[in-house]
Amino acid sequence: MTYKQVVDYLKQQATAVGAGSFWHGKETAKDINYDAAFPQVYLFLVPSTIRDGRVISKVRMCFFGNDEQGSSSDEALLIQDAMDVLTQQFVAALDEDGQGALGDVDRGPVTRSGSTIGTGFFLSFTFSTPALC
Q1: Which of 9, 81, 95, 115 has minimal Cβ neighbours within 10 Å of its Cβ?
Q2: Parent domain of 24
């Protein structure tokens, strides 16, 4: 897969499991867009290596639920729990689809603060596909 194909594939899978909106590349540096549908999935730039005829991409994503200034820790926990479930469904969808080999999956709760609040789950993994050449 090319870089664009990987981004498009991850967007397709995230949308299929329930992401309301998907952001990647430069869009991940912006504030959370409260006018866009939640849950929101952010795909950061994806570095990769080529080894033994395979492109091994190092994927980092955040799955954010709708949080607001002044919400309680209990409310944030419920959002993190929902994003935990969504990341598990996303990983299962990638694994079942078989378009690439999934490996080294790490996840954890995340909170983003500042002018906008983001509460959810961070996900990182490797995604290996055949090289074009």
Answers
A1: 115
A2: 3-130
